[in-house]
Design goal:
Length: about 120
Amino acid sequence: MSNISFDYDDTLDLGQGLPDEAMVSRFKAHMSAGDKVYVVTSRMWTSDGEDQIDEFLDEHGLIAEDVVFTNMCLKVDTLYRLGCSIHYDDNPEELIVLEDYGITGIDAIYGKPFDKRTRWR
């Protein structure tokens, strides 16, 4: 069992509630494997934002251990505190710092590990 995290905007939700089916499928696979799965977003916390994410998760049958808002800060400290070993994200700025903390960053756009040496996907 591992702790895994997913970004929300442009990773799970492509916009206006449209799911990224590949990322939703990976989320479900981690759930089925018994992993603790978190949603970690750099959004500012609002009750409406929390409701939006909760509704999306419910609609797509996704059960998150927790939804964490980093309030516009990079996610790495939160991911480290949660003990995440893998994080899925579309943002290279988020992905590039993860390796230094022992966290594997998965590029949500290409579905493969992010290569920080080249900074290219």
